[in-house]
Design a protein that fits this description.
The complex is a heterodimer of chains A (257) and B (115).
Chain A lengths: L2 H25 L9 H14 L4 H9 L1 H26 L5 E3 L12 H23 L8 H27 L2 H24 L23 H25 L2 E3 L10
Chain B lengths: L4 H19 L3 H22 L22 H32 L13
Classes of the chains: A mainly alpha (257), B mainly alpha (115).
């Protein structure tokens, strides 16, 4: 399809769909007055039923747990896909030197950058662990905490460069954390089956509302999600970082089709 | 007007993202446009779950029963953002491989593989 034909088709479909969309927006309930049957039900019963104070985590890790397991698998598949695509062309070797744009020298990193990286990375890592662990009581959870942990790991690269990053974030360890997190989630679901209940049924003691140990089965599920997200994003960073390197054997870049 | 605004913003984000995808001359730009389309779903879901004058669905300091917004759509958006970032990375990896093999990122310069 040519560009003109594509644009014409787009304009035509806009002409057809725009009145319908506007009519739909006009007939939607007013902003802030939409009926919320499921949300209100969860808000009413979750604290009494599951002893947790963060309703979003209750939905994610308990009431809608099987759905989150599916999304967890999507994350695993996307990260696996990136690794296969990039490693397939490059190989798994990590013995590479920095690639550079032709004609531009490699500039040394400034000491201010290193200092900020070294000071900020542990603080960000600690904050990520804090957010991940307090999933059931205060805003946060494995998804948010995992991303913050991965950002803290990336700060180590910004501060100290590729070699240090490779040393403290070994790619095999990150692969294991990523897959192990998803595995922990799936195995937590099997725990319910062992006691004769349904898959992902919350069979552990619920604990005290508002404490770190509240939520029963949500605790291992949350840890699994935190591991899978943190490991997954660290793998993604690593794979894209490797793309900026060239092999030591001086193979011409991009010539391996 | 304020009652309509969130729905119109969602429609606008979807439309402008789709326009970007249709007219895109570069796959990296196209992936960015896809993220804009995805953002329209976040706006729509969060606007559906909003309740006038209500707080966050966290009952740590407030007792349960305090008016709160819908936690179900918030959980949907939360997982969606993380998965969306990972899928964007997958698409960028595809674009990277495409550039290595074909030397172009322009969708129009790609022809079906013969044989």
């Amino acid at each position: 399809m040519t560009r003109t034909a594509r644009l014409l088709l787009f304009a035509l479909s806009c002409l057809v769909l725009a009145p319908a969309t506007l009519a739909l927006a006009w007939h939607m309930p007013a902003f802030g007055a939409h009926p919320l049957p499921y949300g209100e039900a969860i808000n009413a019963v979750a604290t009494a039923e599951r002893h947790v104070t963060n309703m979003v985590s209750a939905v994610n890790f308990d009431y809608r747990g099987i759905d989150t397991l599916g999304e967890e698998s999507m994350l695993l598949c996307a990260v696996t896909g990136v690794s296969v695509l990039l490693r397939g062309a490059r190989g798994e070797s990590t013995r590479a030197r920095p690639g550079r744009v032709h004609g531009q020298p490699l500039r040394p990193r400034s000491t201010a950058m290193t200092l900020i990286g070294r000071v900020a990375a542990p603080v960000v890592l600690l904050f990520g662990v804090y957010v991940a662990l307090h999933a059931m009581s205060t805003p946060g959870g494995g998804f948010q905490g995992g991303v913050i942990i991965a950002s803290g790991l990336l700060l180590a690269f910004l501060g100290d460069g590729y070699r240090t990053w490779r040393r403290i974030v070994p790619s095999h360890l990150m692969d294991a954390i990523e897959g192990g997190g998803a595995l922990l989630f799936a195995l937590s679901g099997l725990l319910g089956l062992l006691t004769g209940a349904a898959f992902l049924a919350n069979v552990l003691p619920f604990g005290e509302p508002g404490s770190v140990t509240s939520g029963g089965l949500m605790i291992p599920i949350n840890l699994g999600v935190a591991g899978a997200v943190a490991g997954g994003f660290a793998v993604l960073f690593g794979e894209f970082l490797e793309e900026t390197r060239v092999e030591l054997s001086d193979r011409p870049a991009g010539g391996d089709t | 007007m304020i009652a309509l605004l969130p729905w119109l913003v969602a429609v606008w984000l979807f439309g402008i993202g789709l326009y970007g995808i249709v007219t895109s001359r570069n796959f990296v730009h196209l992936i960015g446009c896809l993220s804009v389309v995805q953002a329209s779903t976040y706006v729509l879901l969060l606007a559906v779950g909003y309740r006038g004058g209500a707080g966050a669905p966290i009952f740590y300091t407030h007792p349960p029963g305090t008016p709160a917004v819908d936690p179900v759509v918030q959980a949907l958006v939360l997982t969606d953002i993380v998965i969306g970032a990972a899928v964007t990375a997958l698409l960028l990896a595809l674009a990277l491989q495409l550039h290595k093999r074909r030397g172009t990122l322009d969708p129009d310069e790609l022809r079906p593989l013969h044989r």
